[in-house]
Amino acid sequence: MTENVNPRPGPGEVPAEAEEVAEVQEHREEVLEHAGAEEAEVGGPQDYLLLAKDLVAGYVPGVNVLNGCTLTLTEGEVVAIIGPNGAGKSTLIKAVFGLIPIREGGLTLRGSSIAGLPAHSLVERGVGYVPQTRNVFPSLTIEENLQMGAFLRPRAFAERFRVVAGLFPLLADRRKAKAGSLSGGERQMVAMGRALMMDPSVLLLDEPTAGLSPIYQEEVFQRVKEVNQTGVSVVMVEQNARRCLQICDRGYVLDQGRNAYTGSGADLLEDPNVIELYLGTLAKG
Ligand SMILES: Nc1ncnc2c1ncn2[C@@H]1O[C@H](COP(=O)(O)OP(=O)(O)OP(=O)(O)O)[C@@H](O)[C@H]1O
C-alpha cells in the first residue's frame, strides 16, 4: 500500500506548507522591525575600502527597493549578500556600481564619495562588476571579450592577459573561441576575467553561480577565493547562500531592502534565525 505524502488540501483548507511559509514570513517581519540596530556600530568612510551607508534606491519614481541598506568592505575581504528573491541584493550591487541612482545615503571608496559617479568612472577607480546575465559578448572571441575589459588601458592588455589567464587557464587555451560557443560556467570565467583585466581592487559579482551545474558552481567559488588571494576584495550576491557563507569572511542577509542580519559567514551559518528564515527549504520566497 502506498501513502500519499503530499495530500491535496480539501476545500477551504490551507496547505500545510503554505501555513509554514506564512509563519516564516511573519517571523521575518518581526526580525525586520528590529533591523538596523547594528548599523550604529558602522565606522566612518575612512575605516573601509567601500562603505555603502543607509542607501535608499529604486527603479520607479516614488518606489524604493533599498530602504536604508548598509554594507561595508575592508581590504582583503570576501563579503556575501544573501536573502530571499526580490530582497534587493542585485539592486544594492547595481547602486554601488552607479547603474541606478542613489536617492539617499552615502557611498564611499577609500573614504571618497563615489555617489552619483557613472560606472566607467568606478572602473577607472578600481571597481569591477560582473552582471548576472548577458555578461559576455557572444559574437566576440574570448580574447576580444578580454580586450573590451581592458578598453581603458589597451597598452596593459598583454600583461593583464597573462595574469588573468594564470587564474583562468581556459581563457588562454581557447582564446580564439567565440564566447557564444562556451558553456554557462565557461562564460562566467570569461566575464570574471574581463572584469579583472582592469586590475580592480574591488570586484562586485552578481549571482555568479546562477544557472550553473553544482560542479561549475564549486569551481566558481574556488576561483573567487583564488582571485581574492591575489589581493582583490570581493562583494558577491549569491543564491547558493550556504556555500557562499562557507567561503566568505562576512555576510549580509537582506530582506525587503534592509539589513536583516550581518555577521561572519560561520556565525550566520549557525544562527538559528538565519537558518529558519533564510537558509531553510521554506525560506526561498
Ligand atoms: N529594472 C527594474 N525595474 C523595476 N523594478 C525592478 C528592476 N529590477 C528589479 N526590480 C525590482 O526590484 C526588487 C528587487 O529586485 P532585485 O533583483 O534587487 O532582487 P534580488 O534580491 O537580487 O532577488 P533575485 O534573487 O530574485 O534576483 C524586485 O521587486 C524587482 O521586481
From TrEMBL:
InterPro entries: AAA+_ATPase (IPR003593), ABC_transporter-like_ATP-bd (IPR003439), ABC_transporter-like_CS (IPR017871), BCAA_Transport_ATP-bd_LivF (IPR052156), P-loop_NTPase (IPR027417). This is ABC transporter ATP-binding protein. Belongs to the ABC transporter superfamily. GO terms for molecular function: ATP binding; ATP hydrolysis activity; branched-chain amino acid transmembrane transporter activity. Keywords: Amino-acid transport, ATP-binding, Nucleotide-binding, Transport. Residues 50-281 form the ABC transporter domain. Residues 1-20 are annotated as: Disordered. SMART domains: AAA (SM00382). Pfam families: ABC_tran. GO terms for biological process: L-amino acid transport. PROSITE patterns: ABC_TRANSPORTER_1, ABC_TRANSPORTER_2. It comes from the Bacteria.
